[in-house]
Amino acid sequence: MRYIYALIALLIFAFSMSAQNQIGASPSFAALDLAGQKIDTTEFRGKVIVLNLWFISCPNCVEEVKILNALVDQYKDNKNVVFLGVAASRKPDLEKFLVKNPFKYRVIPNGSMIIISKFGDPGKNGELSVPFPMHYVLDRDGKIVAKAQGIKGIEAVKAELATQFVKSGGTD
Hints:
There is one protein chain. It is globular and about 40 Å long. Strand 8 and strand 9 form a beta hairpin. By secondary structure, the chain is an alpha/beta fold. The protein has one domain: 3-Layer(aba) Sandwich (Glutaredoxin), CATH 3.40.30.10.
């Protein structure tokens, strides 16, 4: 009987996790960035959040950094957009990596638990997984309005940013 209760609890957990990374969901989290500054996504309500889930040993993640930096540059004067990179890499490794490969997103180190718990997809075996790199755009209410994978997904991010700022009458 305990086994059945445990299985039911696991299924409920898996379904609740999968609902957090779908369009319209509002995943929120708090963490420290590389500089030790607190980031709480609920404090960014009223701003558009662009999230990149990545790690330094992922060739595709590394390849897209320059493209993502250009996106940050495009919106550098817009105070209503925030770029966050949640990394599944340890802080010391990230610091070494970023010396050679600057990334203009605010980077959150040691982000594996955030990535899995907020953005993991339950597989057929019940385990949560996340394809890398993964991009999300959250609207001013903190709801996911775009979800896309890889370098090709950056185009979806660009299109959603354009949509978000057309709604508000420009780049703010």
